[in-house]
Design goal:
Chains A, B: InterPro entries: Glutathione-S-Trfase_C-like (IPR010987), Glutathione-S-Trfase_C_sf (IPR036282), Glutathione_S-Trfase (IPR040079), Glutathione_S-Trfase_N (IPR004045), GST_C (IPR004046), Gtt2-like_N (IPR034345), Thioredoxin-like_sf (IPR036249). Chains A, B: This is glutathione transferase. Chains A, B: Its EC number is 2.5.1.18. Two copies of one chain form a homodimer. In chain A, helix 1 runs parallel beside helix 3, helix 4 (87-115) runs parallel beside helix 6 (161-172) and helix 5 (127-148) crosses helix 7. Helix content of chain A is 50%, strand content 7%. Chain A has two domains: 2-76, 3-Layer(aba) Sandwich (Glutaredoxin), CATH 3.40.30; 87-201, Glutathione S-transferase Yfyf (Class Pi), Chain A, domain 2, CATH 1.20.1050.10. The longest helix of chain A is centred in the middle third of the chain and has 29 residues, at 87-115. Chain A has helices at 10-22, 41-44, 66-76, 87-115, 127-148, 161-172, 185-195; strands at 2-5, 27-30, 54-56, 62-64. A four-stranded mixed sheet of chain A has the order 2-1-3-4, covered by helices on one side. Chain A has 202 residues and is of the alpha+beta class. Chains A and B meet through helix 3, helix 4 and helix 5 of A and helix 3, helix 4 and helix 5 of B.
C-alpha cells in the first residue's frame, strides 16, 4: 500500500495528518507536480483527473480524493474515530468537512490559481474571479473565529477530520496572503491547539 | 423533524431522492429564495451560510449541507445502504460524491451564477469565469460517459448516493444549456436507468 503525493500541496497533508492521528505508517511516493507528472497517461490510469493524493491498495486498485482516502482508513482502523462517534456527530463532521471544502479551500485555491504568477502560462487565469475568491476566503476566517468563540473544535468539543481540513487550509491560505488576524483571538486559540498536536508535523 | 428547502433547487432534490430511496417520509417547508428569505437573520440561525436545504431535528438543532443530511439518515436508517457496504466501497462512493461536487456541480453552478440574467444585480458576476466553468462542466459529461462504458453506476455495479448527486447535476446543467449529447450513449443508458427509479420523481 502506498500514497502518491506532492509533499508541498495542502491536500496530501490532510491525509498525512489523519494517518498520524491514527498512528498508521505509510509509504509515500513523491510526484513532481512542477513537471506535470500527474497529467501523464500513466498517472491518469491511477486518477483520471490527474490530481493528488492517490492511494494505491495492495490489490493494485486506486482511490483518490483526500477525504475518501481518509474515510477508507476510518473504516479499516476505526480508533480513534475522526469522522464522528454517533449519527448526529457524523453528520455535523460531514457538514463542516463540506463547508471547509466549498467555502474555504475552494475559494483559497481558486484565488491562488487565478492570481499567482506560479500558474501563469499553466492555467487560463481570470484575475477578477481570483480577487472575488480572496474575499470569500477572508470571510471564512471570520466565520471560523465566530464559531470558535463558543466551540473548542468545529464539531463542538470533539476533534475531527474537519479540524484537520480547516487547519491545512488556514496554512495554505498564506499563498494568497491570508492569515489569522490579531482580532481572530478564538480562531488563534483553536489553531494553536491543533498545531500543538504531534500529528500537525506529519 | 422537517427540512427547509426550495423545491426548484438541485441540492434539496438530492435529499428528497435519497429519502425516497429509503422510504422515509418528511415534512418540507418551502423557503422563498427569490425573496432571499434564506439570508434573513432568523434563517441564518438555522444555517449561518444562508443555504438550503436545512434539516431541523426534533431537539431543535439544525444540520445543513445535502450530503451531511443524507449521511444522518444513512446512520439512523441504514437500509438500503446508499453510501457503500464495505470499507473500499464506502471510499469509492465518497470519491465519486466529491468528484461530482467539485468538478461537476460546482462548475455548473458557477457558470449559472456568473452568466445568467437571473443573478444580474443579485451577485457580482464574472462572465469570463462562468464561460470557463461551462467548459469544465462539459468535460465532466465526457468523463461520465467514458466511465459508464465499463460501469453500470459510479461505484461499479452498486447504485449509491453518488449516482443521485450526478443525476441531479445532469438535470441542473440544463440551466447552462448543457445536455447529454447523442454520442454520450453510455451516459444516456445510466441516466435512463436512474430516471426509471420511482425516487427520481421525489
Amino acid at each position: 500500500m502506498k500514497i502518491y503525493q506532492a509533499r508541498i500541496a495542502p491536500n496530501p497533508r490532510r491525509v498525512r495528518i489523519f494517518l498520524a492521528e491514527k498512528d498508521i505508517a505509510m509509504e509515500y511516493v513523491e510526484v513532481d507536480i512542477q513537471k506535470g507528472e500527474q497529467y501523464s497517461p500513466e498517472f491518469k490510469q491511477k486518477n483520471v483527473l490527474g490530481l493528488l493524493p492517490v492511494l494505491e491498495l495492495d490489490d493494485g486498485s486506486h482511490l483518490s480524493e483526500s477525504i475518501a482516502i481518509c474515510r477508507y482508513f476510518e473504516e479499516v482502523q476505526p480508533e480513534p474515530l475522526l469522522f464522528g462517534r454517533d449519527a448526529k456527530e457524523k453528520a455535523i463532521v460531514e457538514m463542516w468537512i463540506r463547508r471547509c471544502d466549498f467555502y474555504f479551500m475552494f475559494p483559497t485555491g481558486m484565488c491562488f490559481q487565478n492570481t499567482s504568477d506560479y500558474f501563469k502560462g499553466l492555467k487560463r487565469q481570470v484575475p477578477e474571479w481570483g480577487e472575488l475568491c480572496r474575499e470569500k476566503s477572508a470571510k471564512f476566517f471570520n466565520l471560523l473565529n465566530n464559531h470558535f468563540e463558543h466551540n473548542d473544535y468545529l464539531a463542538g468539543d470533539y476533534f475531527s477530520i474537519a479540524d484537520i481540513s480547516a487547519f491545512c487550509t488556514v496554512d495554505f491560505a498564506k499563498v494568497i496572503q491570508q492569515r489569522i488576524q490579531p482580532e481572530h483571538t478564538h480562531l488563534q486559540r483553536w489553531y494553536d491547539a491543533v498545531a500543538a498536536r504531534p500529528s500537525s508535523k506529519a
